[in-house]
């Protein structure tokens, strides 16, 4: 007859697996970062684009190696945002020319993150879905805020919003390898809330994302003085994250501070809510 494991044993095993996962991640990040295979084409596209001799044809060839990324780029290039009423764009070179290099990398990253999200354990599905929707909302909201209220490049803001929780996706993928954590998604959510920012910083550096973006998303879930006007990319991401539901993450951080922020009722920001929601729906339709 099998004897059920005691709560104390389960608690000890859970604690050990938490430490084991964090230690494994720390070891991975201390050397050459090994990304899940769905990031392979993203890394290849980024490598080609960083080459000083890269031509539009070479970039298009790299993109065409991943049919999903290629199709999303064509879909995005023909969207109302980028091609309002114009003739249909049917080839990758023109799509890349229309969207710009940053949007190409953003699309490749979005496709990789979406594939990473879809491969999760069933018990992580609600968490991974919420994380994906939050990332897309933050990206869409950041683009609108940057466009309407700042001189920050809207495409830069969108990419920063998309990857601001990259560390959380990575941790969720790794958590699937630890049985005690798979059985306790609430514990995984707490662990992610505590560690995803620092892990995400290392991952974005490994992907060689623009330094401006890497710096802007640092500590995006840490309280800062009230933001009444937007001037920097970091401020745009901070406010976009709040409007996209960032306070839910703050609730798991044991910050000891009231979960209220004046930004959410600041008239200039709140007036853009409908436009931000529409931008999110458009992005959700593409990805």
UniProtKB/TrEMBL annotation:
Signal peptide positions (record): none
Gene3D superfamilies reported in the protein's UniProt record: Hypothetical protein af1432
Domain of life: Bacteria
Sequence ranges assigned to domain HDOD in this UniProt record: 35-223
Database matches in InterPro entries: HD/PDEase_dom (IPR003607), HDOD (IPR013976), RNase_Y/CdgJ (IPR052340)
Species per Swiss-Prot/TrEMBL record: Andreprevotia lacus DSM 23236
PANTHER family the UniProt entry points to: PTHR33525, RIBONUCLEASE Y
Pfam family, one: HDOD
Listed CDD domains: HDc (cd00077)
Protein's name in the database: HD-like signal output (HDOD) domain, no enzymatic activity
